[in-house]
Structure formats: structure tokens, C-alpha cells
Amino acid sequence: MPTVRLLAAFIAVLVTALVPASAGAVEPTGTGENIKPVKNIPYPNLNEPAETNAGTDLEFATITVAGPGAAKGAPGASDSAPGAAAPGTTAAPAPATTPQGKAASKKAAAAQRAAAKAAKRCSAARTSAKKAKSKKAKRRAALRAKKLCSSAKKAKSRARKLARTTTTVERSGLRDARSEEPGVQRTFAFAGSYGDGLHVIDVTDPEKTERVATWNCGISQGDVQVFQRKDLGGRWFATYTHDGYTWHKGSTCVSELRALGFGKQLDDFKGNGTYIAEVTDPYNPTAVSFVPYKLESHN
After folding, report:
1. Which of 16, 53, 101, 215 could form a disulfide with 169 if both were Cys (CB 3.0 to 4.6 A apart)?
2. Could you say which residues form the signal peptide (predicted)?
3. Residue numbers of the chain with a pLDDT score lower than 50
4. Is residue 11 one of the residues assigned to a domain?
5. Is 148 inside a domain boundary?
6. Is residue 21 part of a domain?
7. Long-range contacts of the stretch 41-45 (C-beta < 8 A, 24+)
8. What is the pLDDT of residue 16?
9. What pLDDT does 164 receive?
């Protein structure tokens, strides 16, 4: 029975991911022989107003999120009893089904949107500073860029903090996707989109399916692959591809990669290539690398 319910959740999320750009709002039900939708998950509109809920690729992974067996760096990694959190960390959050949990989720989403806007202002200010002609104008623009980018960094930090703790308001009923294995496992769908980021959706409990994180990476087509590197301590990564559509330079993933020293490659190849995020902590995806491709990148 759990396998059947989980499969239903996979199908329901897949139906949502394939909603065409022209569809706009998420449909309340899906169609198809022997398919019964249990829940549709809308995507936040971060960068592409004309492509609301435009899903692309979809991958699934069951990741140990707390207790023994959690990869180093995961929020609940420890050698303690299954489900327990390591000292100074929090266990994986349960779906936000209470009013308090839903309010926390909305607050986290608002913080993420604010961080995305701040990142865009930072990027625009840096561009203006480069284009300034006189020394005085350059100096003034540089100071403004420094101030805006400092604010963007703080906004990003706040958004990450809220993303980590947003659903810890409610922890009862946290179900283990693989109770026969050490630690707490949760099954996630990693759903790509046209320009509006990589969405991480907890599908462990079909009726409580919830989007737990969005990596604001404004690229398209947004094909995704998820894999684990056991030679790196069991860490999880996701590749996310850009193949020539609109490139949103102010999105979070671009800012993260510039901070890692990939700015020249991003600019030289106009963003075309494969973006790599670490998803060991699926509630907080973070850019770790970029591989440019002149002829664009695909699944």
C-alpha cells in the first residue's frame, strides 16, 4: 500500500510539472486513465511572468535527512538514534499542515522573493558601476553597488535561515520513507521549470506533499539530474541545465556562482551550461559549480 500511495504522489507531481506555459493557474484535477491526482503543487513566479507554472524535467531521490546515515553536512547528520538531530542542529521538518506552519512557509517564501529582488538590484548596480564614465561617477556607483550587494547578502542569509526552520514549527508525524534503514529518509521530487528555478518537493506522504525549497536559478530549459557521490561522504548533487533561453543574471544561482569565481565563464558563455547545486540538505540547495557549454546544455 505505501508503494502504491507513493507512486500516486509521483504521478500527481509529474502532472503539475508538465503544465504548459499557457495554462497559468494550477489545475485542481488532472486527467488520464487510472490516474487519480492527490495534490497539485504551484510554483512561485520568480523571473518569468509570462510562463506561470511552466514545469520541465522531474527527478526523484530518497535522501537521509536526519540521524545516523545522513550525509555530512545534512541538517540532522549524527550517529545518534534514528530520527534524532545532532547537537546544535535541527531534525528534518515535517509538512507545514498547521496554521503556524503555513504562516512560517509564507514568511520564508516572502523572504526568498525579497532576496531575489535584492540580488537583481545588486547585479544592476554593479553593471551601472562598470558603465560609469567619469571617475566621480564610477566611485559613486561603486559605493552604491557595495551597499546594495551588502543588503542582498543579508537578505539571502535571512531567506536561507527561514528556509531551514520554516516547517520545524510542526514535527509530529514525520514519517520515515525507509524505516528499515538507519536515520530518517524522505523522498523528494526535484522539479525544473522555465526560468523560475529548481523546486524541491517532499512526496514522502502523498496527501501531505509540499514544496520545501526553491533554488532560484533563472535559466531554461531547466533539465535536472540528481545523484549521490559516495566518494565525497555520501553528498547529494543536482545538475540543472541552460540551453539558450532567457538567462536571468540576477537570480540566486548566478550570484552564488559569481561568489565562487565563475563570473567570467558565465559571462563569456552567456549563462549556457550546466549548473551544479548541492542538495545534501534538500531544504537548502546551494550552487557549488558550473560547467560552460558553447552549444548550450541539455538533459
Report:
1. 101
2. 1-25
3. 1-5, 7-23, 75-100, 166-173
4. no
5. yes
6. no
7. 41/13, 41/16, 41/199, 41/201, 41/209, 41/210, 41/211, 42/16, 43/191, 43/193, 43/196, 43/197, 43/199, 43/211, 43/214, 44/109, 44/112, 44/113, 44/196, 44/197, 44/214, 45/196
8. 45
9. 55
180 vs 12, 183, 185, 187, CA distance in Å? 26, 9, 10, 15
- Residue 109 lies in domain: 101-172
Question: What is the predicted pLDDT for the residue at 256?
Answer: 94
pLDDT digits (tens, 9 = 90+) for 88-105: 323 344 443 444 455 666
Alpha helices in the chain (DSSP H): 2-17, 99-131, 135-165, 252-259, 263-268
CA distance 131 to 148: 17
pLDDT confidence of residue 237:
97
- What domain count does the chain have? 1
* Cα distance between residue 200 and residue 105, in whole Å: 14
**Is residue 296 within 8 Å of 244, Cβ to Cβ?**
yes
Is residue 126 in a domain?
yes
CA angle 297, 60, 293 (to 5 degrees): 10
- The pLDDT tens digits of the residues spanning 228-251 come to 999 999 999 999 999 878 899 999
For residues 51 and 223, give the distance between their C-alpha atoms in angstroms, rounded to a whole number.
Answer: 16
The pLDDT assigned to 298 comes to: 66
Write the secondary structure of 69-108 as one string of H (helix), E (strand) and C (coil): CCCCCCCEECCCCCCCCCCCCCCCCCCCCCHHHHHHHHHH
